[in-house]
Every structure is written in structure tokens, then in C-alpha cells.
């Protein structure tokens, strides 16, 4: 499955409750995307999220349903330091 990084910019600091996490998983499952992990900026107003999804449109649909931004969606491939050994 293709992987994507989503950059999200929030007007206020991001706080995610356990209930929010359950709701996010339900919506993601319905549209066929998987949230792998995210990085949160020090000011808690920007995230960089790694997802697996069939396409960018699925990610945009999930974000829209969750009422969260998806400012930049970038297709990515994985590399690690081992390729340079």
C-alpha cells in the first residue's frame, strides 16, 4: 500500500483525547487508510503524519470527515541508514 506524509497546521494547540483516537480509527477504517504515526511540533500546532492509503483522495476524505486539515500530502518511500552501510 502506498505511504504518504500529511502536513497539518492547526490554529490552536492540538490535544487528542482517547475518545478522539477511537473516532479517528473508525473513520480511517471506513475510508481504508491507516495512521501509522505522527510527529507533533514543540508548539503543538503542526503535525507530520505517516499514513498508508490507496490514494491521496482517501486521505482527503478522512481529513474532511474528521474536520482536520490536510494542508500538504506527499507520497513517500521508506529508506533507512542501512542502505549506506
UniProtKB/TrEMBL annotation:
Any Pfam family the entry gives: SCO4226-like
InterPro entries tied to this protein: SCO4226, SCO4226-like
Domain of life: Bacteria
Protein name: DUF4242 domain-containing protein
Gene3D superfamilies: ORF SCO4226, nickel-binding ferredoxin-like monomer (3.30.70.3090)
The organism's taxonomic lineage, starting at the top: Bacteria, Pseudomonadati, Pseudomonadota, Alphaproteobacteria, Rhodobacterales
